[in-house]
## 1
Amino acid sequence: MSLPNVTKHRQLGLMDDQVLKMYSVMVLARKFDERATLIQRSGKTAFHISSIGQETAQVAAAFALEPHHDYFLPYYRDYAFVLSVGMTVRELMLALFLKAEDVNGGRQMPGHFGYRKHHIVTASSPVATQVLHAVGIALTAVMKKEDRVAFVTFGEGASNQGDVHEAFNFAGVFKLPVIFLCENNQYAISIPAHRQVAGRIVDRAAGYGFPGVRVDGNDALEVYRVVREARDRALRGAGPTLIEAMLYRIPPHSTSDDDMLYRTKEEVEYYKEQDGIQHFRRYLSECGVLNDEQDRYISENAVREINEASRYADQAPYPAPEDAMRHVYAEDGGGV
Amino acid sequence: MSLPNVTKHRQLGLMDDQVLKMYSVMVLARKFDERATLIQRSGKTAFHISSIGQETAQVAAAFALEPHHDYFLPYYRDYAFVLSVGMTVRELMLALFLKAEDVNGGRQMPGHFGYRKHHIVTASSPVATQVLHAVGIALTAVMKKEDRVAFVTFGEGASNQGDVHEAFNFAGVFKLPVIFLCENNQYAISIPAHRQVAGRIVDRAAGYGFPGVRVDGNDALEVYRVVREARDRALRGAGPTLIEAMLYRIPPHSTSDDDMLYRTKEEVEYYKEQDGIQHFRRYLSECGVLNDEQDRYISENAVREINEASRYADQAPYPAPEDAMRHVYAEDGGGV
Amino acid sequence: MSMRKTEVESEMPIITYLEAIRSAMCEEMVRDDNVFVLGEDIGKGGVMNATKGMRDRFGERRVLDTPLTESAIVGVAIGAAMVDMRPIAEIQFADFIFPATNQIISEAAKIRYRSNNDWQCPIVIRVPYGATGGGGLYHSQCPESVFFGTPGLKIVAPSTAYDAKGLMKASVRDDDPVLYFEHKKCYLYISDEVPEEDYTVPIGIAAVRREGGDITVIAYGMAVHHALKASEELAKEGISTHVLDLRTLHPLDQPAILEAAAKTGKILIFHEDNKTGGIGAEISAILAERLLYELDAPIMRFCPPDIPAVGMAPTLEKFYLPTVDRLKKAMRQLAES
Amino acid sequence: MSMRKTEVESEMPIITYLEAIRSAMCEEMVRDDNVFVLGEDIGKGGVMNATKGMRDRFGERRVLDTPLTESAIVGVAIGAAMVDMRPIAEIQFADFIFPATNQIISEAAKIRYRSNNDWQCPIVIRVPYGATGGGGLYHSQCPESVFFGTPGLKIVAPSTAYDAKGLMKASVRDDDPVLYFEHKKCYLYISDEVPEEDYTVPIGIAAVRREGGDITVIAYGMAVHHALKASEELAKEGISTHVLDLRTLHPLDQPAILEAAAKTGKILIFHEDNKTGGIGAEISAILAERLLYELDAPIMRFCPPDIPAVGMAPTLEKFYLPTVDRLKKAMRQLAES
Ligand SMILES: Cc1ncc(C[n+]2csc(CCOP(=O)(O)OP(=O)(O)O)c2C)c(N)n1
Ligand SMILES: Cc1ncc(C[n+]2csc(CCOP(=O)(O)OP(=O)(O)O)c2C)c(N)n1
Ligand SMILES: [Mg+2]
Ligand SMILES: [Mg+2]
């Protein structure tokens, strides 16, 4: 394979160290996820919901945004995303182990992200509610004349909830700076996308008068490019963009799911081959940005970080029982 | 203006007496509506919500369907529609006057149609809920292998409710025999369509993989044609159709609304000129289907029917107070 | 009907309940740039005139006409509130709040708790409720009990112009989500003295509206006025009624409820919402748990029957809605029991 | 835990609560072609296995996997029910019922009433609720009180396999909308004898689970089993407990409640839903209104605290969820009062 004179990432304005960083986060997320699955299997934790197969798109999207400035409303698979915008593996492990030091105080299931200092908006389990919150945050940016976007993700199953339609329409009417990213991983638990989604999600944008872009979610630089463009549009005042990233959920829905009830090993194996992280690794090697030694170093670093974090989180104390009573309302009464 | 050899309605398979009947119902609906407004102004009734400006499309759509066979889920402006599928002026007057003999027993606001014997499904006030019911009825037709469609209407404001999206998707996934007709009358109370609807409603259909058709709601034969086609598609098993009929609401939102707060007299006057009933009358005269004498006869008939109906309804008794307690549940307990 | 007797030297203007709500919103918008209102048709003033004139004064950004989508109205408001805005969302009629239930119960109510205090959601949702006559099944409902008891939510329901204004201000300034139930019948029917200067009415505090020794009536919203009227008339028959106006429905002012009940030992709870599962049930349960030995009669509830809502026909309406006469009968029975 | 003592000659099979639900659905589908089930992931058996094997047996039309849209699941079921189908709609977790609130409260509950009996809406909505441990804030909720008190709805909440089956059949055959609250903890934890032949358990009728003379515990769902366990243990301390299982939450079986309460005069209401605004409040209010003079102690409610739901960490979970030990303490206190 011959290389172009200027590498694709440079054409997109990405420096070598940035793509290396992207790659490192993908590796870190993957390894975190594998570890979390192992920890769950060992019985140490109750539940894990995995992002394997979706990291490439998540990291690429995140790098097209402005951490600690834009607002982020990730959904429960967005481990790689939240690692890209500031969360640490230790923070993720504390959530997994449900410890007091977890920002959510061990209250929420793992995968329910939220961290004000990282501009990650608190998430619940009912799918798609956050899409409207993103619109409200985008509205605020316009009202306050702030140069930022709200970025929200959701699955293709969740995309069918009424709230998504209301959000698209609201954002379209007011041309708000919001980016809707649907991570279409082909399944909503057991339901394949063709039984879940009529038409194509990407085509829904046209009905609200804003652009819809479908992108190969395993192609990091393409995802980066379309999110970047969407952000530019948003900041220009040209309104929202819907991006549909085509992906595949490699693991079962969660540690409680048996995916062999509704799909075949062969299908899963086929998609494993398409792994976006491996694509990206090959691209980086071909560009000369990544060599085997660096790659090994990145992996080892990730493993070390994960080891330390899981040890730390395992040993950290649980929340005090009576802390359950706190924060139903503002502690000072919230009033005047 | 020269006539084609075969009149347009004949090309569409409509006999002369059918188009005359269509015209008569339009006239009847218009006159009913004008009377209802007068009655309300006189203080005899509390409330009226008008269909003036939308009758043409409503009647044309109804004539493309199969009364007492298909199921109908009209919204509150569909007076002309319900008159086309079997309701009588007397029934409408009983509802307006809130009398015991009204099928709803005087419980509901006027305009909340529902009549099982006419296959008119009971309606509530929260907009757009009925769109999902239509999908459920269409699903039933498929399950029971019955050759019928569900036909549902809603305003362009209502089209933005989450339920509409969920209905479109559900119907699209299962290719159900349902026809969605949006009566886009340019306003949702005070909000003009461009501040209410992002993009074009008709374009939303494509996002669910079924056809969307925009039609001039003042053109009776065009509306008839597209609804007929939608019905044929539905019965062929080809799935739903979304039709957006472009209309204009001539009166204020309801008798409680002052429309001069948000639009001009000139705008309203302009649209009054586009009246579909007058268009249709001219067309019928030009075809030689309608002459002045017949026209007068149709009007007089309508007025007579309305006079009798309003006299009857005015004199009819109110529901007995304690009837309020009935029918919360099936009277025999509903159980086993 | 006027709540407070005008004293001779009083200079306070008397305004309607509706004006009180509007002036509170306006003053809060002047005080704090982060306050804004959103809802259907509010630009033209709203279908009830609550926001009349506000668009001209504050611009269409801060008096935001939204699409016809209640879940979006609340969901967008939540998003804005999480990044420090103070939205006041209008639901056009209480009957149409249900599409927003998920955003209210799953989101607004749980944002602080689930994030362990990392995020908060200071929204106000205005909910015009109750029957005015001529509204029928879907323009008259009292859905407060659907949301009552949801930890994380606050619910207020003023009965006077004074409280309407003070509770609106308190709600806007409160750091937690508040459902603001405004009774549509009170809008123009109720007027009373409202100070010109800034004040708030604290959330969570009930008010004694009338002192009495024979029976205690506990009510909120329009029911308070019926109760006062009935009390006045019964006073002529020698029955002395103590009237407590809850003002805040959630969390309930338990000390005030206990005190008002203890005053007479004979309690009638009165609301326009259906009896079964209404807020009256909780009040009764609190009393049965904490004040049993001071009760001199069964705790009575005077509420409309358990049917979906008021019918449109005048006969049905009259049958359903509480009247002062029927209320008096219930009060008299209790007094004589 | 098994509810009914196996008698020596009994030939009745013992099955789980989950199997009971499933077999009721299957038998109703065999009996009546109009019965069908719909919901998310139910084709593969549902995330809880309630519909396991049913798609193979009845085909994917009658065991219909829907898109991930609760309002559509209920709304489509309503449409079908209005044209004579008998849909059983599954909400995957009770916590996710809220997007369907408008369809349930504005539509299903009011269709018969608003149409003056011209239309009816015989749907069943299955609502798997309650904590099993490890579910956290959004997979453990008890939202029954949100719908409780809505005229036009029926709500059932079986505690045994026998009732689960009989109430499911009664719900399917009922001509009005029924919310069928199935406690997730009961699924596999509860097994008891269920006849092979067709039977129903009537909606609206509570059941005495244990006769006793000192105190009365009123409960439903999983709480009934805790109450029975506690009663058994307290019997050894000489405290005799009468246990009433509500079985139907709406409409409540008032005669049975009054009778069970009158039996001892000392009443403890116990549910897993939050205390404030829970169904216990209505029960207490009924007693305070109709049985006051036969009460020998304040009416107590034993419920989790008023916080949004159970936290995920084991410490938080343990703090929140009712335990037999804490329940016994409350019962003992009442008995000794
Ligand atoms: C409103 C609601 N209904 C049901 C669920 C249960 N549930 C959790 S994840 C899920 C599937 C989501 O699929 P998709 O949106 O495609 O995201 P994915 O898991 O594939 O990433 C379901 C049904 C839920 N969380 N929220
Ligand atoms: C869920 C809900 N929200 C608000 C209302 C109050 N409302 C009644 S009609 C209406 C406007 C509807 O506009 P559109 O759908 O365009 O129909 P049109 O009245 O123009 O025919 C509104 C806001 C309602 N009925 N239901
Ligand atoms: Mg998916
Ligand atoms: Mg309109």
Note: Chain B has one domain: 5-291+298-329.
## 2
Amino acid sequence: MEIILSAAIGILSASGIWLLLRPRSFQVIIGLCLLSYAVNLFIFSMGRLTPGAPPIMPKGGFVDPTLYADPVPQALVLTAIVISFATTALFLVVMIASRGLTGTDHVDGKERSQ
Amino acid sequence: MISEHLIIAPILIPFVVGALMLLYDDRQRGAKFWLSLASTAAQLLIAVELVVRAKIGGDIGDAEGMSFYLLGDWPAPFGIVLVLDRLAAMMLVLTALLAIPSLVYARAGWGRQGPHYYSLFQFLLVGLNGAFLTGDLFNLFVFFEILLAASYGLLLHGSGQLRVRAGLHYIAINLAASLLFLIGVSLIYGTTGTLNMAHLANLVASMPGEDRPLLHAAIAILAVAFLVKAGSWPLNFWLPTAYMAAAAPVGAMFAIMTKVGVYAILRLSMLVFGETGGASAGFGSGILIMLGMFTVLFGLLGILASQGLGRMAAHSVLISSGTVLGITGFALAGGGQAMLSGALYYMIGSVLATGALFLLIEPMNREDGGIAAMLALTADAYGIDDADMEEEPDVGLAIPATMAVLGGCFALCVLMLAGLPPLPGFVGKIAMIQPLIAQTALPAGLAWGFVALLILSGLATLIGMARIGIQTFWANDVPLPRVLALEIAPVIAILLILGTISFKAEVMLRYTGGTAHALHDTAAYAYGVFATPRAADRPADEEAQQ
Amino acid sequence: MAEHNLFLLLACLPFATSLILLTLSPNARGASTWLSGLSLVAGLAILAGFLPGIREGDVLRASLEWVPSLGMNLAFRLDGFAWLFTTLVLSIGVLVVIYARYYMSAKDSLPRFYALLMAFTGAMQGILISGNVLGMVVFWELTSFMSFLLIGFWHQGAAARDGARTALIITALGGLCLLTAMLMLGHVAGSHDLGVILRSGDAIRAHPWYGAILALFLLGAFTKSAQFPFHFWLPGAMAAPTPVSAFLHSATMVKAGVFLLVRFSPALGGTEAWFFTVTGIGMVTLILGAAVALYRHDLKGLLAYSTISHLGLITALAGIGGPVAILAAIFHICNHAVFKASLFMAAGIIDHETGTRDMRRLSGLFKPMPITATLAIVAAAAMAGVPLLNGFLSKEMFLAEAVYWHNGTWLDNALPYLAIVGSTLSVAYSLRFIATVFFGPQATNLPKTPHEPPAWMRRPVELLVFICLVVGILPALTLGAIVNIAARSVVGPDLAYYKIAIWHGVNAPLMLSLIALAVGTLIYALSAKAIATGPEGPFLLHRIRGQRIYDWLLFRLTWRLPRLALGLVSTESLQPQLRLLVLTALAVAVASLWGGLSFAPELRLHAFNPAFALLWTVGAACAIGAAWQAKYHRFAALVLLGGAGVVTCLTFAWFSSPDLAVTQLLVEVVTTALLLLGLRWLPKRRSEIPEDKLLPAKIRRSRDLVIAVVGGLGIASIAFAVMSRPVVSNVGDWFLGNAYYEGGGTNVVNVILVDFRAFDTFGEIAVLAIVGLTVYALLRRFRPAPESIEAPDQQTMADSPSVDDYLFVPSVIMVWMFPILIMLSGYFFFRGHDLPGGGFAAGVTLAIGFLIQYIASNVRWVEARITVLPIRWMGFGLLGAVTTGMGAWVFGYPFLTAHARYVNIPLVGQVPAATALLFDIGVFATVVGAVVLMLVAIAHQSLRASRRREQEELAARKEAA
Amino acid sequence: MSRLFPHPVLAVSLIFMWLMLTRFSLGYLILGTVLSLVAGWAYSALHSARPRIRRWSTIPRLGVTLFLDIIRSNIATTRLLLTEGRNGRQSAFIQIPLTVTNANALAVLSIIVTATPGTAWVEYQTDTGILIVHIFDGAEAEHYHEVISNIYEPMLMEIFE
Amino acid sequence: MSPLDSIPLFLAIPVAFFVFLGATLTLIGALGFARLNSFYDRLHAPTLATSWGTASVMIASSLMFSFIDGRAIIHEFVIGACIILTTPVTLMMLGRAALMRDRAERSDALPEEMHIRPRPQDPPAQT
Amino acid sequence: MSGMILTIALGYAQIALALAGCLVGTRILRGPRAQDRVLALDSLYVSVMLLFLVTGMQLGTAFFFEAAMVISIMGFVSSVALAKFLFRGEVIE
Ligand code: NA
Ligand code: NA
């Protein structure tokens, strides 16, 4: 499973990076979204994989931490999801504002040939 | 009891005020301004008090004058801890010192250019102050995001093609950098199991060898994110355009934004790769020195190649960043505390001076007509059906002898940035150069190269700025611009502060010297974080005493 | 003590005067003159008071602590040399002040002029009396800066601006070199105290840095003293008002360089390197300056080059460095100051009264202004070295040194010949000055009719010429003693008294002098015509102009080169910047891991699950597909992105993170809606961009593909390396163990978010709020591209059904979903602490509820029925969260300390009541506010566009009607 | 009471949903009731008109008919899908003029059509009242036309109008 | 020892059956979705998953968790209800969007009589 | 015995659902029209939702339920937005 997830992270990242380097702002924004999936999975994977044992505790009694998934990366991902959502939204709005003001959707506000 | 919570006040005050102002109607700008001013002034007062505390030592968790604050009363390294040491306190004061003039300046017109300026401004301060205070890596990320988000908003404040285009680049690059930040932080957690900086500093010496490369990679990736913010070459090409495009008071605040990146690098590298870093000690110092040098060189070329003052000011931000980065590298390589002390002193001066310069740009380039012309320039033809465009009379009085006052202020900024006497730029450069040339442990070529760059950057600043200044003040036949007292008073205030910093250089250097010493003393930091007692664990009699 | 304070007063007096002058009204001509003059006179009086001590060889000291830890103090030190020089500066200052009162026109603000002049005087005096080398540099730079302002005083003229800038850049460059030299000297000598450094000559000369120090030091001194090849700034500086030229550019500032040479000759001098560079450059400057001076047509230009030449002479003497040479140098400094100041003033008078300084136009002025002419002739004679005038004496001493002093080098042997060439030329140009200006036919076509100036404008000249005469005739009685004292303070107390006499008998120097006078006269007589009609420089040399070379160099070095370099190493486009960022991150990661990245010996792997793998093939294909389609098929890319997102959610759920899966899904929905809202405003792209098929584009794409693949491989291998490693002991374990007992919740992730690390969440909601505000603010100024204003094609098609028709049935169900989502939101909110959910999920759920309503009908319909004030929600949310956090203070706990307990409510039973819940309400409200604000702000743009269309249609219809 | 519970049916279903999601307890009941109040208000803000159900008794009949239909068409569609390519299936569009105009009734009809595999709601025009349904198996076109206009539509009209 | 082993056989068989049925229906639907040629045909395929596919998995899940928890677990049916409620919205809107697009393009996917929107005065056509 | 039956059934269901996801995934990629992609995404959501439930049963945990519910209630929102965009050229007007 670790191999699959690593590959997934790799493919998401590669697609994201490729798009990040493209000239159209919409490509960049899709790239950022893909990258944020990749990064979220990466953060998540830093706690190692634990299937079927969410960090939800019994009410009382001894807790053996090794039986549960590490909650910290999950909490980090949650925060990261929210923040990347917000910034993606912002980027989107700047993208359309830039398109409106410059007349093009090129990230530089002008076509390459110009 | 109150003093115990004073550490968090620089974060909470702007937060509360920023949130509170959301409940106001957007047109109640007067009230918002005064609220903001009160908030910022309170931050300054508290920051000064915290500096005093950092100097003499606080009453809780006293470790060489450091104070600690366990958020949610959770012990380190589990909860988030705020750490107030000399460096943090100093940065807080610097932030507030820059914020007040910028705020007052904005009152003259920029504050009206779009909705919720004052809230965004306060949130920017939340981010800055939080980034300086936190002792937790992920929390640092959160505060970075706060200050970045606010800076996006402020950069775009006023809209217009130039700003939006610059904003697009600024945001795209910073988003990418934030992703790197996340990768770095999580990788650190994956290899060490902690997010607490002090804990990390403790763990790094005894790390198993096979994990060390991963930790190095983590911090290197993290450093790339910081370097983007610090404006380090080759990750800084966005910076001049963005800073130039920003509204004047925002540009002034941006002067300190790069320093947050520098701060993070300084803090983290000294903690993790300082003398106590075991096999990792000194990691990355060489590259940091090189990057610092390239950044200074880039800034130097940029200043010379710039046509407008805004771009020049932005490049002088780069010079100041590069200088401190380079010195951080030297300090990390074992260069000692003296040069770090000088760099910190220099940083204070250069931040304030670039801030003042940003505030000067707009009045200097204003051909005629004051704020009204500015409004006309930035207002878009489409969609002005909104309330924020109503005409308000200019606030405040126009100043007499405009050109002389502006010219004088500009000249002083130039003197400061070029490192000419008698302003802190000069003292700061001497304070860096003296230990650099005295230091024999460092590679001589690098040290001398750095000295040469420091001197040359001063000369380049002088040449470039003189060119612009002469053009603006001497070779211009346009009628005298109308400049409001509200716009020039902040600049004069900053210059007075600069004068004081120079005059009181000995006191300042003693403080920064202590700061440099504390930065080298990783053990005290780490000890203090872990020794801080929880409020719940404090014995009752002790509580009664407080 | 009184002396100490008086000394400090002396140092501060000019600056204080300057500040007072700044406050005077521009019309206060008389008052400002009196103030400046008296201030200088007061300074002189103080100096006079110090004379007895100075005579005894005392060294006066005073100091103000500034930055002692850097060895940088405002330490002052007055010895004979400094005393003499300071007195000279202040005395000429007084005369210049008087002169300027009449010279400056009514349009000029005299107080401001004097303020600059006084500040300059203070700085100059500071150089002379500094006892700390760093303090000296401070004043040194200050003189550069003040002189810049003074040269540019008449900044309306381009010449003044250029001259000022050139002077500033050259002298500041020198100043920075000097600073470095001083820092190195301080390091070598172990102190920045001038006295200490002057005593450490042997150590300095033996130090490996000596060469570098000397070079930097000389750069400082030479630039200031306009030595070849930095001499050109001085003629350019002649655009300054004449009082400035007389003061700064003849008597004082330019002498700072030679002052430094003389002052530091004990510390740095005495080596061959010193001799060759200093004397060599001095001699070159002496001859070159004199040669050019002869050819200048501008009166001030002639005087400027003459000054350069004389400075060369002094420099050469300092290079020789023997006791007598030093004494001669000091003596010539004084003499030159006196006659050159008077000449400049005379030139100023001529300019002032005739309106021109061009010697080709001036002629026969003796008749209309006999007194001025007489004064100028005497002063010029002093400059030429005519006996019985002061210039003669010091020049004789120079010639004597050239002839009698030996160190056996070739330069030493050449000195007499070089000296005689210089002297000859100086006679020639002095003669030219006298002959062309005062004699010959009286000029007729001058801009003004010449006559004598006001008496007080002439008084300073008269006084100075008088001094020329007195010193020339009675040197021993007048300056002899003090020059000896000054020299002794430089070279040491062992110096025997040197008697300056007019007559040393017929000796080589006298013969050389006479030869010079004769040959000089001859040269002028022979070439007068040619000079008057020729170019402004000697044969061939006039083509090589320092200024032009400088301009060329400056332009290349400080404009073209930086721009070229920046063009090469930087970019304003986004793509290369992002590429650099990715590459940098890759590079640092690879560098850190190179050879060190190891996988665990026993990989910690979980059993393969085909379902998971199958779904990731879909996810990966979607990701790649999105990358593939994002340019030409945005909509498809968006759907593909959704596919990748849902598989990501699945992964979170699979590996035990229900909270993440839920949150990711919710965010996914909102993000899709947002992106779709944005899609409306992007340009339609139906056909391929032709450039995309060209080779460069293909190369770019392949390069980026390689970067992307390498980046993906890198991050995948790091992820794998960590995932397959054994678990390190981490803080997560503590959270698992303590969430229930300490945090009062069973969902550890949620307890972390609202309690253990609530501060992160606190920041996170701030980010959301800020972004909401930014989006809102930016969109209020939104201006769509012209082609986007029109309604989308779908709506303008002939047969398109109305939106109400389209949504008639779907909207019913969508409205039904509203209460369901509100319930669901409540569900997520209340169970968050124990089970997956929480304030954020609840908030987004509610926001999606609103979103559905907006989709189900239209903005106007929804907003007529429900009013959401999202900014208020945000405000209350943030305030709620922060006040909950601060509530802990009341109980003496730190910010955000949570409190959880079970409250027993009758019938209902145990109900959990945690402050974390209150905090979560804040989170909830902020999230609702921010998300709704963003959605609505973007959505409103379509409304605005359609409203605009409606208005236009209405207007068009009205027009038609 | 009608101010407090503008839509009693809705409120009850929401509370029921709430209790399905949570476990039954008095506390949850109270919480759910309060929430359903809020949700009800929100709904009534959007829809001030109260949809009224006229004949409750028809509802179970509708349910049973639908349940059987769903099973029947699931089987039929599955069979068709499994033999796709060999069964000579032809799909078809049918146009059904509807007399029912109540939006809620139409929404329920759309649920019915959708839940029944083999029929897909494609277009309903408010101006003509014509419903276009896509039929997976064209051979059944007549049947579905019949079912919709003669069975479901009258039942819905009974319930809603 | 997996939690599945604790389920008695009489319950395991229906649970397994329903799970099998739901998954199979979904798979068949997906298969059809991938294979069918016309969009309007494909519109039917997912309804297998959203009607009995979902329902049977719901039933299975409810049976199983009710046994494990020892009480009636019926929250699955909220999912079922919501699927029933929301699927029509998507399909209706997509179907009509497709119809409009096909009409605009005069696509072959539509039979001739579908190319024109029925007008109020038009007599309803029948196929 | 019952464990084995259930394991087999659930294992089969998992693979069948994942396969279903793959099959609809091909439509997301292939299209050919935008409406096909949207429909496919919607179906993918349903497959994943069922997979959540099945996996939850397999692991004997109820923690997959929320995610499944979110899909069931809010999955349609993206599809609806996409569909409306196809129909109107904008999502909110
Ligand atoms: Na664990
Ligand atoms: Na159906």
Note: The pocket of sodium ion (ligand 1) is lined by residues A 65-66, 68, 70; C 732-733 (CB under 6 Å).
